[in-house]
């Protein structure tokens, strides 16, 4: 359906008038007029034609009536695929509805007309498709949301109608949403899954506190804790029982009478054996003491003999050592003195040869300096000559350069002068050829005069006015013509001036002078080139460098020493080498002598110290030995007693050996006694300990047994196992339900995306004009955009700015309008002062979106913002108003 | 005149049954205690005055005081019955405290056989006991049954433990492990009858050797009624006359059911399950095989309906595979998101790239989806 015209009579401000809005095209049509023009009146009247029955008298209809009263009338011309029709309605007074064909034939009236309109609406956009200003394709002033948000019955009804329309539309292009998303059955299944999960898990999937799963897990934990506490007691009880059996068996064995008697007998026997061994051990100890005494005395005698013998020998050795040390000390003293003398002589020789060497070096140095000074003087003389030559060449070059600087001639200047002269010559010849020729043929002796100059034979050109004096006749004034003569003269003057200027540029007065000057300049340049080359040979680094070299050579020449000029340098160098060798040899010998003398002094000190030590040792030994005679006598006595002492020792040793061989092992006897006693004691102790332990075990077992620990533990373990199994079942249940919920949600999400794909396909290109890259999410309850995601940030429509909400509302309607068109039911989009909250940039983008859709969609825009909407373009609607 | 006695074992008095809910747990414990009176009744019905308990009368080495005292009281109350009690592996001689207490508190009609010495039951009838010394003694204690008895005596062996299985199969050990008692012990030791305990199912091992089984079942291992054996011995060397006596109160059924598509699950279950007094039956049902979603849902509904009728009920469907027929998925939805979710779960349940656990989760989720979708539709 397309709207073509709207006509109002007696509606609001058009009281007593008929207003007609026409020029509504196929695409975008704009009615841009100031406030109070009546745009909204057209909008409301249009709405009333479609949605207010002609017999209606509600507020919507009454609002159309002007203050002056009367019956409001409105008609809308529509174009349908089957033809053009006019829908007319009159309300309140003699209400009427009428449908007229293009040819003027009425095809329906009143209720039939309403039915016709209803059918049109049904056919156009489904039930309630174009319902109300909040319908899909009607956008009126200040609209922000996609549908009314209030709670009034009317607003609810509008929302419901809009939803139904969207459902119908989307169903026609994408199938039934219920079929796609599972609809109410899916909702119910999901609700049941959620309901079944709710008692078991939290929103994050954790066991829910107080729920059956959490309870089972808590039981598992609690029972495990109880088991952990009880099991050690049960194990203790079991251990105690085992120990009690063991202890009982042990006590029974220990208290066996035969075993007790055997232990007593063993102690007695061990004690007797130990006492016998002790008695024998006492005898053996006495024998051993006697033997040790004899052995000690014999050893003491031997020791004394040995000591005295050694003392004698040591005295002798010390006397010999003392004499040898004295001899050695004397020899060392003599050697030290001898080497000291040699050291002095060597040092003297080294000083002498060293002085000779220094003298020779001084002489050779002076001779070499004198030789260098002479060479410098010779070099200064040569350099002086080069400097003079260079300065001469430099002066000559400067003179030529100065001359060349004064000469202005150049081949180019000469050429210019030659060309100027040739031009002058050409003009002169031309002038002469064009000039009046005077040829005198005197017949008498008279001499004709031209400007006072005798006129010779031959023709004379007359280039300017002149006087010819003819003797006897008088004079003739000859004028070749003022204008022509002046022109020729002017051109000649110009050519002449040019030639003179060219010559002046050459610095010459004539052309031959100029040629001569050019030859001279070339000659001078050649000479300068030769001089420059010579100067480069004489002073490659420049004259200044040459003069600096000369100054240095002269300075070196003046530094000649006073002596040494006559020295024989090669001779001196030979003598110097010999003296150097001699001095080195003497120094080495001096160092050797010094080392030897030093060593000898140390050896002398050492020998002297050794001598003193030997002397003191000998004196000490003499003091220790005392009188040598008495020492010898003492030795003789001791040696004589020695055999008797040895005999006594051997006898005591034999007796001791016999006792030792017969001795029982006291330690073994003692150990046997200890073991037997210990075993008896241990048995007694073990019996006591066993009985005590048994009493303890009896008490403990009795107490624990009364608690029925084993049964309790088995009970707890069974309950723990059951709780674990129960928790496992709940876990399995939760996993299955969770998996089911995820699968359902994923499937529904995928179905939803598929379902809304047609809307998104239309909406996304429009959205990208305003918000490139933005995504929109559609609510499957309202079937309208709900979430806008820009740069990864999702925002619900409710929190967006008014401008953005307004733009999205219009874009959504445009998208749905395109879907209507695709479904074969095109409907117009009517915007009444929309985009009031959009800024300049966005409004431009919205214009682009409107134009994009208007290529195949009728859009009618009412606006009072004439300046802002000037850029919208589109066709202009016309409004005519006439009195009734 | 023939000598008759009741051969019983494995009362496991005091067994806690902690893995079961409170209600059935109490009944289970009470039933075990009631076994004493049941045995006495069975003995009387067979005109026997002796009840020989072949071990494991008590479940633990140190039973709770009430367990012990109530048991002793119950035996005492059956004053016309002589109770002969052999330590088993659960209540072995190592349970010194138990036997000390019994020795202290036992009624006159109770005799405890704590040594392997032959004991005269009545004139000319001897019991040759083999009391368990430890929970796992590690040797054949029944060798003691070869001990001499007076000429012409009737010799009754009383032992507890697993017998050796010479056929190479599993030995008859209630708790696993190798059997030690030779199956021909009766012959070897010249026994007229060998009364054995340990195996909770009643079973004849040889002409003269029997396991009595437990008088009150305590697990799903043996799907048998609890009972005892009434044994009658006429003369030495004569074969024993053995009559099984039912004493059990509660029945345990460990059932396996393999399902295939199209099977009548209700009929199968009816066939397997007891038809009456279901509250006295404990059922553990393991269902394997595969079923279409619809049949699985029907099975689950049937199981849910049956469960409250029994004393205890557990059905394990973890081994039951999902077979989703196209019509099953159609019943979830013919198209759309529900159908899509179902197909995803079905694919996952058979995706070998996933772990078995994940496949099982997907199968359960699919079954749940089917059931929920049917409920919602209804």
UniProtKB/TrEMBL annotation, chain A:
Residues 277-342, 373-403, 666-740 form a coiled coil. GO terms for molecular function: exonuclease activity. InterPro entries: P-loop_NTPase. Keywords: Coiled coil, Exonuclease, Hydrolase, Nuclease. SUPFAM superfamilies: P-loop containing nucleoside triphosphate hydrolases. Residues 585-628 are annotated as: Disordered. This is DNA repair exonuclease SbcCD ATPase subunit. It comes from Rhodobacter aestuarii.
TrEMBL record, chain B:
Coiled coil: none annotated. Pfam families: Metallophos. The keyword Hydrolase applies. Gene3D superfamilies: 3.60.21.10. Keywords: Exonuclease, Hydrolase, Nuclease. GO terms for molecular function: exonuclease activity. Residues 4-99 form the Calcineurin-like phosphoesterase domain. InterPro entries: Calcineurin-like_PHP, DNA_Repair-Maintenance_Comp, Metallo-depent_PP-like, UCP033093_metalloPase. PANTHER family: COMPONENT OF ATP-DEPENDENT DSDNA EXONUCLEASE, NUCLEASE SBCCD SUBUNIT D. This is DNA repair exonuclease SbcCD nuclease subunit. It comes from Rhodobacter aestuarii.
């Amino acid at each position: 359906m397309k709207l073509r015209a709207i006509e109002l009579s007696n509606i609001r401000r058009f009281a007593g008038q008929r207003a007609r809005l026409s020029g509504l095209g196929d695409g975008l049509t704009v009615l841009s007029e100031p406030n109070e023009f009546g745009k909204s009146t057209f909008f409301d009247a249009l709405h009333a034609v479609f949605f207010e029955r002609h017999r209606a008298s509600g507020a919507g209809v009454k609002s159309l009536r002007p203050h002056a009263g009367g019956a409001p009338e409105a008609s809308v011309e529509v174009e349908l695929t089957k033809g053009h029709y006019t829908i007319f309605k009159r309300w309140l007074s003699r209400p009427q509805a009428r449908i007229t064909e293009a040819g003027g034939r009425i095809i329906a009236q009143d209720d039939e007309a309403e039915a016709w309109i209803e059918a049109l609406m049904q056919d156009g956009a489904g039930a309630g498709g174009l319902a109300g200003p909040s319908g899909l394709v009607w956008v009126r002033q200040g609209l922000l949301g996609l549908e009314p948000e209030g709670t009034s019955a009317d607003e609810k009804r509008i929302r419901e109608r809009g939803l139904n329309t969207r459902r119908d539309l989307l169903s026609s292009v994408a199938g039934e949403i219920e079929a796609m998303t599972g609809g109410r059955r899916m909702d119910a299944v999901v609700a049941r899954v959620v309901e079944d999960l709710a008692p078991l898990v939290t929103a994050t999937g954790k066991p829910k506190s107080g729920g059956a799963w959490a309870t089972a897990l808590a039981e598992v934990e609690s029972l495990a804790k109880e088991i952990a506490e009880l099991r050690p007691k049960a194990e203790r009880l079991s251990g105690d029982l085992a120990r009690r059996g063991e202890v009982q068996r042990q006590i029974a064995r220990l208290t066996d009478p035969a075993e007790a008697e055997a232990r007593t007998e063993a102690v007695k026997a061990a004690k007797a054996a130990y006492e016998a061994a002790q008695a024998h051990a006492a005898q053996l100890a006495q024998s051993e003491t006697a033997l040790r005494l004899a052995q000690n005395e014999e050893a003491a005698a031997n020791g004394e003999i040995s000591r005295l013998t050694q003392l004698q020998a040591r005295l002798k050795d010390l006397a010999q050592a003392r004499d040898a040390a004295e001899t050695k000390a004397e020899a060392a003293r003599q050697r030290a003195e001898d080497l000291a003398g040699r050291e002095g002589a060597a040092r003297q020789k080294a000083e002498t040869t060293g002085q000779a060497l220094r003298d020779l070096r001084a002489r050779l140095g002076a001779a070499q300096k004198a030789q260098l000074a002479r060479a410098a003087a010779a070099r200064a003389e040569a350099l002086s000559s080069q400097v003079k030559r260079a300065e001469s060449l430099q002066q000559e070059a400067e003179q030529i350069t100065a001359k060349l600087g004064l000469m202005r001639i150049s081949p180019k200047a000469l050429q210019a002068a030659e060309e100027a002269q040739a031009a002058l010559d050409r003009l002169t010849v031309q002038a002469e050829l064009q000039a009046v020729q005077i040829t005198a043929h005197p017949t008498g002796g008279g001499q004709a005069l031209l400007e006072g100059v005798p006129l010779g034979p031959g023709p004379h050109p007359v280039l300017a006015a002149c006087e010819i004096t003819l003797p006897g006749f008088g004079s003739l004034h000859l004028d070749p013509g003022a204008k022509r003569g002046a022109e020729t003269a002017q051109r000649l003057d110009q050519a002449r001036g040019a030639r003179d200027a060219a010559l002046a540029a050459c610095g010459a007065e004539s052309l031959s002078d100029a040629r001569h000057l050019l030859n001279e300049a070339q000659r001078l340049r050649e000479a300068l080139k030769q001089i420059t080359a010579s100067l480069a040979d004489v002073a490659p680094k420049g004259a200044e460098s040459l003069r600096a070299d000369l100054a240095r050579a002269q300075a070196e020449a003046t530094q000649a020493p006073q002596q040494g000029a006559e020295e024989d340098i090669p001779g001196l160098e030979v003598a110097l080498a010999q003296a150097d060798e001699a001095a080195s040899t003497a120094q080495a010998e001096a160092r050797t002598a010094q080392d030897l003398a030093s060593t000898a002094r140390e050896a002398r000190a050492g020998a002297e110290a050794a001598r003193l030590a030997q002397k003191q040792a000998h004196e000490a030994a003499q003091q220790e030995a005392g009188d040598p005679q008495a020492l010898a006598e003492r030795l003789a006595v001791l040696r004589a007693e020695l055999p008797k002492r040895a005999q006594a020792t051997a006898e005591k040793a034999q007796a001791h050996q016999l006792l030792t061989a017969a001795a029982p092992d006291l330690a073994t006897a003692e150990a046997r006694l200890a073991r037997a006693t210990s075993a008896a004691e241990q048995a007694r102790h073990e019996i006591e300990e066993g009985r005590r332990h048994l009493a303890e075990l009896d008490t403990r077992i009795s107490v624990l047994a009364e608690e029925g620990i084993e049964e309790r533990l088995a009970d707890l373990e069974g309950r723990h196992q059951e709780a674990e199994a129960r928790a496992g079942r709940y876990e399995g249940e939760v996993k299955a339900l969770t998996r089911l919920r995820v699968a359902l949600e994923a499937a529904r999400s995928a179905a939803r995306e598929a379902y809304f794909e047609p809307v998104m396909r239309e909406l996304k290109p429009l959205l990208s004009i305003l918000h490139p890259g933005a995504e929109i999410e559609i609510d499957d309850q309202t079937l309208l955009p709900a979430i806008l995601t820009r740069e990864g940030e999702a925002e619900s429509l409710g929190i967006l700015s008014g401008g953005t909400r307004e733009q999205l509302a219009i874009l959504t309607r445009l998208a749905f309008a395109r879907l209507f068109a695709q479904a074969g039911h095109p409907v117009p989009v009517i915007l009444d002062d929309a985009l009031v909250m959009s800024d300049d940039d966005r409004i431009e983008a919205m214009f682009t979106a409107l134009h994009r859709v208007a290529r195949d969609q009728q859009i009618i825009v009412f606006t009072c913002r004439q300046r802002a909407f000037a850029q919208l373009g589109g066709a202009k609607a016309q409004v005519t108003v006439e009195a009734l | 005149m023939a000598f008759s006695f009741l051969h019983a074992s494995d009362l496991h008095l005091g067994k806690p049954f902690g893995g079961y809910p409170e209600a059935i747990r109490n009944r289970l414990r009470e039933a075990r205690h009631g076994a004493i009176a049941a045995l006495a009744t069975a003995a009387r019905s067979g005109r026997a005055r002796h009840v020989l308990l072949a071990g494991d009368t008590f479940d633990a080495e140190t039973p709770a005081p009430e367990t012990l005292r109530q048991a002793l009281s119950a035996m005492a109350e059956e004053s016309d019955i002589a109770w002969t009690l052999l330590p088993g592996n659960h209540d072995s001689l190592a349970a010194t405290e138990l036997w000390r207490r019994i020795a202290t508190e036992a009624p006159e009609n109770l005799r405890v056989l704590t040594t392997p010495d032959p004991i005269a039951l009545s004139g000319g009838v001897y019991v040759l006991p083999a009391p368990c010394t430890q929970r796992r003694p590690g040797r054949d204690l029944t060798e003691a049954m070869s001990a001499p008895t007076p000429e012409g005596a009737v010799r009754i062996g009383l032992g507890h433990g697993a017998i050796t299985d010479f056929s190479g199969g599993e030995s008859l050990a209630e708790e696993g492990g190798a059997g030690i008692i030779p199956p021909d012990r009766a012959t070897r030791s010249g026994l007229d009858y060998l009364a054995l305990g340990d195996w909770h199912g009643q079973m004849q091992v040889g002409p003269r050797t029997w396991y009595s089984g437990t008088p009150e079942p305590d697990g799903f291992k043996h799907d048998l009624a609890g009972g005892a054996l009434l044994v009658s011995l006429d003369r030495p060397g004569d074969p024993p006359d053995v009559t099984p006596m039912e004493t059990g109160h509660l029945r345990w059924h460990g059932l396996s059911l393999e399902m295939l598509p199209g099977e009548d699950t209700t009929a199968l279950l009816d066939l397997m399950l007891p038809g009456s007094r279901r509250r006295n039956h404990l059922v553990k049902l393991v269902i394997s095989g595969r079923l279409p979603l619809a049949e699985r849902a029907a099975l689950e509904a049937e199981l849910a309906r049956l469960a409250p009728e029994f004393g205890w009920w557990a059905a394990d469907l973890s081994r039951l595979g999902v077979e989703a027929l196209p019509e099953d998925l159609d019943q979830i939805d013919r198209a759309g998101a529900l159908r899509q979710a179902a197909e995803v779960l079905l694919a996952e349940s058979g995706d070998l790239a996933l772990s078995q656990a994940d496949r099982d989760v997907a199968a359960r989720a699919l079954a749940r989806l089917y059931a929920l979708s049917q409920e919602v539709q209804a």
